[in-house]
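ESCALATION

Customer reports they have been waiting on this structure for their group meeting. Please prioritize. Original submission:
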Amino acid sequence: MSAERKIRNLASGLAVIWFLFCLFPLWWIFVTAIKPPLAVSQGATYFPFIDFQPTLQAYRDAVSGIRGDFVGPIFNSIVVSVISTVISVFLGAMAAYSLVRFEFRVKLLAGLVFAIISIGGFAILTEIYSVKVPYAIAIIMFVALFISVLLNRVDLPGPVMNNNDVTFWFVSQRMFPPIVSAFALFLLYSEMNKLGVRMLDSLPGLVLAYSAFGLPFSVWLMRDFFETIPVEVEEAAMVDNISRMRIFFQIVLPMSKPGLVATSMIVLAFIWNEFLFGLLLTSSKWQTLPILMAGQNSSRGDEWWAISVAALVSILPMILVATFLGRMMRSGLLAGSIK
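Update from on-call: job pushed to the front of the queue and completed.
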C-alpha cells in the first residue's frame, strides 16, 4: 500500500470518527426523548427496543401542556422568524443592490453632525421640554437626518466615505454586544407601551427587532451576489426605457433567486436561535422557542425526557434548513452567491 493511500485511509477514518462524535449528541437527544422516566433515571441506555422500551409519552405530555405551554412558543418562533426573515432579506436586497449599482459619497462631518444633533436634541427635548421619549426620537431623527442630508450636498472638509464604508457600517452593527441594542430597545418599547402602543410582548415589536437584527447579514451576503450579475443585462433593459424599479423587481431579483434563498436560510437560522431579544422583549404571550428551552429546568426538577423533546423540536427545523442549503450548494445553484 502506497504512502499516499495510507494517508487517505487515515484521513477518511479520522473523518468518520469526527462525524460520529458530532452525531452522538443528536442521537442522545433523540433516544432520551423516547425513553420512559424510569429508563432515564436508571442510567445510560443507548438503543431502543434493546436497552429500553421506547414511548412517545414525553411528546404527549409536551403537547398536552403538563409542563406549560409548549405549542405556543413553537408557533411564535415560526411566525416571527418567517416574517422577520422576509422583511430583512427584502430590505437587505434593496440596500445591497443600491450599494452595488450606485455610488455613495457620505461626508464624515455630515455624519458627525447627525450624531451630535440626535444625541443633543434628544436630551434637550426630553429633559428641558419634557417631550415623551418616542415623540422625541421621531422628531429629532427627522430633523437630524434632514440637516445632515443638506450638509452632505455642500463642500465640507474632511474624509468622504464610499460604498465600502457604508457596507462596513452595516456589518459593524453586529459587532456591538447585543445587550446594548436589546436593552435600549426594551426601554423604547416600555415608553411606547405607556403611550398605548403595545410593543413589548407583541408580534410587531419582535418582528421589528428581529428584522433589524438580520438586516446586516442580508446586506452583506446579497451585495456579494449582486456583484456577480452582469450589468449589461440591466443596461439593455434601460435602452428599452424600463425604470430602475422594474429592472430590480422583474430582472435582478429573479436572476438572484439562488442568492435570495441562501441569504434567507442563513438569516432564518440566526433569527430562529436568537435568545436575548426574546428574553427582554417578551413576557408570556409571544415567548419564542429559545426562551422555552431556557425555562425547561422547572421546579419539578431535571426531567430530561421533556427537555430532550423541546431540544429536538428546536433543532429539527435548522437541520432541515442546513440539509436543503447543502443540497442547493452541491447542485451548483448557489455558485457565486457567497464569496
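Sent to customer with the following note: Residues 1-55 form one domain.
Escalation resolved.
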